[in-house]
């Protein structure tokens, strides 16, 4: 699989049985993956100087409001971070609006390949717009 | 006749239970560096969920003080009842509230990552010896 050195994905998902296989898959694709189960933990990671996050994967499968609030917060406070909002609820897709700017929110059960494809497209677009990045 | 080779073992799997995401991340990355598979749980509840349905783990590393309904000592008690063969390593920023000699090794925070990896690997070695003896 293609390696992606120095790119970090922050995965917010409350259910360990969903989070763990997705995180392992993304690690297998060469990404550094940080796992969190709450928005509080996610913010702690964002605020840590040694945890430079490139993509936030925020799953709304548990408490959707948490994922929405964190996505809004990231848009405001971490504008360089790409946000992927994902979840099961139709309302989540409707509420997502422009939080997830690259296509519709991903629905569960997560197709790991689709998640990877979304991450790659977002990071490739970012590299094109900011080659020095 | 030559002895049959042993089936190749999968990488040992560590269940790391720690509510501080940065502590968890750093230790998990260090354990992966030495070839271990690490499952990260943010609470005792998550750890029990994983143990109840997922593939077996070879060692559990758990913080004692954690928010929520169950702390690391209670988690260790439950695991010893349901999975008595799994070694448990306990960590805490405070001295242990009880004698932990019957539970497993104890890592006082702040611990060095090297020290933590050594303790985990030593626990796995002991388990491997026990497993081999019981075969």
Layout: helices, strands, pairs:
The complex is a heterodimer of chains A (133) and B (135).
Chain A: E1 8-12, H1 16-28, E2 32-36, H2 39-47, E3 55-59, H3 64-77, E4 82-86, H4 90-96, H5 112-129
Parallel strand pairs in A: 1-2, 1-3, 3-4
Chain B: E1 13-17, H1 21-33, E2 37-41, H2 44-53, E3 59-63, H3 72-82, E4 88-92, E5 106-108, H4 113-134
Parallel strand pairs in B: 1-2, 1-3, 3-4, 4-5
Helix pairs in contact in B: 1-4
What does it look like?
- The complex is a heterodimer of chains A (133) and B (135).
- With 133 residues, chain A is α/β, with parallel strands linked by helices.
- Chain A is built from 5 helices and 4 strands; from the N terminus they run E-H-E-H-E-H-E-H-H.
- Chain A has helices at 16-28, 39-47, 64-77, 90-96, 112-129, and strands at residues 8-12, 32-36, 55-59, 82-86.
- A 4-stranded parallel sheet of chain A has the order 2-1-3-4, with helices on both faces.
- The longest helix of chain A is centred in the last third of the chain and has 18 residues, at 112-129.
- The two termini of chain A are 23 Å apart.
- The mean pLDDT of chain A is 83.
- With 135 residues, chain B is α/β, with parallel strands linked by helices.
- Helix content of chain B is 41%, strand content 17%.
- Chain B has helices spanning 21-33, 44-53, 72-82, 113-134; strands at residues 13-17, 37-41, 59-63, 88-92, 106-108.
- Chain B has a 5-stranded parallel sheet with strand order 2-1-3-4-5, sandwiched between helices.
- In chain B, helix 1 (21-33) crosses helix 4 (113-134).
- Chain B is globular.
- Chain B starts with 12 loop residues before the first strand and ends with a helix.
- In chain B, 36% of the residues are buried.
- The chains are: A alpha/beta (133), B alpha/beta (135).
- Chain A binds chain B through residues 15-17, 20, 23-24, 27, 32, 34-38, 41-42, 44-45, 48, 51, and chain B through 19-22, 24-25, 29, 32, 37, 39-43, 46-47, 49-50, 53-54.
């Amino acid at each position: 699989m293609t390696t992606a050195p120095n790119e970090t994905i922050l995965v917010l998902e409350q259910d360990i049985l969903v989070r763990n296989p997705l995180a392992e898959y993304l690690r297998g694709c060469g990404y550094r993956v940080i796992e969190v189960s709450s928005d509080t933990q996610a913010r702690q990671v964002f605020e840590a100087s040694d945890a430079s996050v490139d993509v936030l994967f925020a799953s709304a499968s548990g408490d959707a409001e948490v994922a929405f609030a964190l996505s809004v917060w990231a848009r405001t406070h971490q504008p360089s971070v790409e946000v992927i909002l994902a979840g099961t609820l139709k309302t989540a897709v409707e509420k997502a609006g422009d939080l997830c700017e690259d296509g519709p929110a991903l629905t569960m059960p997560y197709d790991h390949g689709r998640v990877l494809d979304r991450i790659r497209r977002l990071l490739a677009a970012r590299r094109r717009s900011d080659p020095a990045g | 006749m030559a002895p049959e080779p042993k089936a190749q073992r999968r990488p040992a799997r560590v269940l790391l239970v720690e509510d501080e995401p940065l502590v968890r991340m750093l230790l998990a990355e260090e354990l992966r560096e030495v070839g271990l598979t690490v499952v990260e749980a943010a609470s005792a509840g998550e750890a029990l969920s994983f143990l109840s349905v997922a593939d077996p783990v070879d060692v559990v590393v758990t913080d004692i003080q954690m928010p929520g309904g169950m702390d690391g000592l209670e988690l260790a008690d439950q695991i010893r009842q349901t999975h008595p063969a799994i070694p448990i390593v306990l960590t805490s920023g405070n001295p242990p509230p009880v004698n932990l000699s019957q539970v497993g090794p104890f890592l006082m925070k702040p611990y060095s990552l090297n020290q933590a990896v050594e303790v985990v690997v030593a626990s796995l070695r002991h388990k491997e010896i026990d497993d081999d003896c019981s075969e």
